Amino acid sequence: MALTPAFSDLVKTRRAFRHFRPSPSRSALVLACVLAAGGLAAPASAASDASTKLIRCGRQSCLLVSGHRDDPSAVISINGQPVSVEGQRSWRISVPVDTVRQWSAPYAREIEVSFRDPGTQRESADIVDLPIGLLGNVTDLASLEISLP
What we know:
Layout: H1 5-18, H2 24-41, E1 47-57, E2 60-69, E3 75-78, E4 81-83, E5 90-96, H3 97-103, E6 110-116, E7 123-129
Antiparallel strand pairs: 1-2, 2-5, 3-4, 3-6, 6-7
């Protein structure tokens, strides 16, 4: 049975690679480089799973912003405004909706939660969705007329 040229090339290539075995030191070097690159890419005070929720606080509505930070000493800002939060690694803050409206663009659908490491001054940010319609326009209706055909 005659081998086709493509199949015989494949057999030769597989035989050539069978003799190539990476050394343990080369494998360790590659692994170390991959791990180091992964460590450099992650910010020091990264945010994870930040979320927002509309809650009642007294007579007004508030936005509850919560999340996790790697470094408890990281300074947290919402839309560029530094805030004082409750908690260490798992944190939360209630911000009145009127304040969020002042800090945000009109009809905004998201806020930026920033983390700054006080030691290295490195900053990372997370874009967090707002509850639907939170900063939308409210129309007061004096009356509503419904007509049936």
